[in-house]
Design brief:
Length: 512
């Protein structure tokens, strides 16, 4: 079995500070990376910033800065956000780095050598905000203001000499690839959009620009800079030291297991990127998952719309794990989702404080009073006990399947139901009435602690810091977490000491 797992986020434009949408993609990618690590995989998790192109050049000009200084500054805020979000990324790539430049120019040379690129002239619509070319049918005219239909971004007319990539030639091979690899594009509703776009006919793609200079130069013609998407997409292999295909990282992790992106950039990842790779004889990634948008009201949250919710502000007020939990659990993965302070507060109260926090607090304080903060000596498990414990073992393969199919919501529902069941079990068993039957009291506490351990392991990818706090009750360290261990009923060693824990999640009493 392939035990390597390579996951990437989009590399974000440092044209403005990061917002909740960026945090969302990164947190979800982190969830998968952490899950796969505790499942025993060797994981490479990449994120970074996409720093070339006209959009960045203009943003820098607006601030009166040279583009690199501008990028240095804002890229740093994305790097800091990775830390604030407690991302476990192995690398952070910037497209202004030398390793990337070398990789992009090499890919370009191969495409040119393979006669996949030719010089001609582009005339058509271009959106600087999307860094995308559009055909007439993709444009709407609102009283003379022309915008792209799908994104609403303004477009401008461009006419200039340009290199073209022979995208049209790859239409049939791409369709064949999609049909042979039905899970390459997910969710499947989005796959249908891509397939019909490709079926409707692919035109050759302009892959260089001449009218500005902020980018990677075409090696054979320094008047042109390479189209920012050809530049940006290559980050996924330049971070693995491409063009050195014998490099250990490249060998271990290419092709990528999953490119996690927002649905706005699916065409670039599911059409252009595989076409570039096919043309250069490089293996294709295994999956592209286009998740939905975080909306602000009914609209996409975006820098250009100015309706952003600052993740830092939310984290400062509610804590990181509350935000991580909300985004993983409350957004139906693959679809658009909403975040508001009210919804976040109600989620913190019902799931984190009243369910997880409550189980943790009551079992540990009961243990303190009755079992002297140690793992009690259990006796034989009865049917009620086994029902709690077996649940994890019996559903183990199903849970792994949820993750491998990116069915986050089923995974989360399982956790929530298990938490309810564990709280109910503790209530129904009434260990406080069993003081004259210590073997039974001890067994109930043992089972409850085991379930708390299992659920905390399941929650590790979602809320790593809080999960680690609970696991530290049992002296379990991060490096020792094994997902597989949720199958075992007797991991906790009798008589081992356990540690007390402060309130995990405070209930939010009233709005301000
Ligand atoms: O497109 N909801 O960068 P970008 C959910 N540099 N996710 C959102 C979002 C929202 N409201 N807004 C942004 C680029 N995102 C290119 C990518 S990759 C080779 C180059 C997330 O800064 C989502 O993942 O505009 C989306 O695809 C990405 O940020 C776009 O970030």
């Amino acid at each position: 079995m392939d035990k390597n797992f390579y996951i990437t986020t989009p590399i974000y434009y440092p044209s403005a500070k990061p917002h909740m949408g960026h945090a969302y993609s990164s947190i979800i990618a982190d969830f998968f990376a952490r899950f796969k690590r505790i499942q025993g995989y060797k994981v490479h998790f990449l994120t970074g910033t996409d720093e070339h192109g006209q959009k960045i050049q203009r943003a820098a000009e607006k601030k009166g800065m040279d583009p690199l200084t501008f990028c240095d500054e804002i890229s740093k805020t994305f790097r800091n956000l990775s830390k604030t979000l407690n991302l476990s990324n192995n690398d952070f790539i910037r497209t202004t780095e030398k390793r990337h430049l070398k990789s992009v120019q090499n890919l370009w040379n191969i495409l040119e050598k393979n006669k996949e690129i030719y010089l001609s002239k582009y005339s058509g619509w271009y959106s600087v905000s999307d860094e995308a070319f559009y055909v007439e049918e993709e444009i709407v005219d609102n009283n003379g203001n022309k915008t792209a239909k799908n994104s609403g971004s303004p477009v401008e007319w461009v006419e200039e000499e340009s290199y073209f990539f022979k995208l049209s030639k790859w239409q049939e091979p791409l369709l064949k690839f999609y049909s042979e690899n039905p899970n390459f594009i997910l969710p499947s509703t989005r796959k249908n959009e891509v397939v019909s776009f490709v079926k409707s006919g692919l035109k050759d793609l302009s892959v260089s620009r001449k009218s500005f200079s902020w980018g990677i130069k075409v090696p054979s013609n320094k008047e042109h800079v390479i189209y920012v998407w050809l530049d940006a997409l290559t980050n996924y292999i330049s971070a693995l030291n491409y063009p050195n295909q014998n490099d250990k990282l490249y060998q271990e992790f290419w092709p990528a297991t999953i490119h996690l992106i927002g649905k706005d950039i699916l065409r670039f990842h599911a059409v252009y990127w595989p076409a570039f790779l096919l043309a250069a004889n490089i293996p294709l990634p295994k999956r592209v998952y286009g998740h939905g948008w975080i909306l602000s009201g009914e609209e996409k949250m975006s820098k250009s719309k100015g309706n952003i919710l600052d993740p830092i502000e939310i984290i400062n007020k509610y804590g990181l794990d509350s935000l991580r939990y909300y985004l993983v659990k409350e957004v139906s993965f693959g679809n658009d989702g909403n975040i508001s302070k009210e919804k976040l507060e109600s989620c913190i109260n019902s799931d984190l404080a009243n369910n997880y926090g409550n189980l943790c607090q009551r079992v540990i304080s009961f243990n303190e009073k009755n079992c002297n903060l140690s793992i009690p000596k259990k006796s034989l498990f009865n049917q009620d006990d086994l029902k709690q414990l077996d649940n994890f073992k019996n559903n183990f393969d199903k849970l792994i399947g949820y993750i491998d199919n990116q069915d986050l919501n089923s995974y989360m529902n399982f956790i929530i139901e298990s938490l309810f069941a564990a709280n109910k079990y503790f209530n129904d068993q009434e260990p406080w009435k069993k003081k004259s039957d210590l073997p039974r009291l001890n067994t109930i506490v043992y089972v409850s602690l085991e379930v708390l351990r299992k659920i905390s392991i399941m929650l590790y990818p979602v809320i790593p810091a809080s999960s680690l706090r609970v696991l530290s009750v049992f002296n379990i360290k991060e490096k020792d977490i094994k997902f597989e261990s949720i199958k075992n009923h007797e991991e906790l060693e009798i008589n081992n000491k356990i540690n007390k824990i402060d309130i995990l999640f405070k209930k939010i009493e009233n709005h301000d």
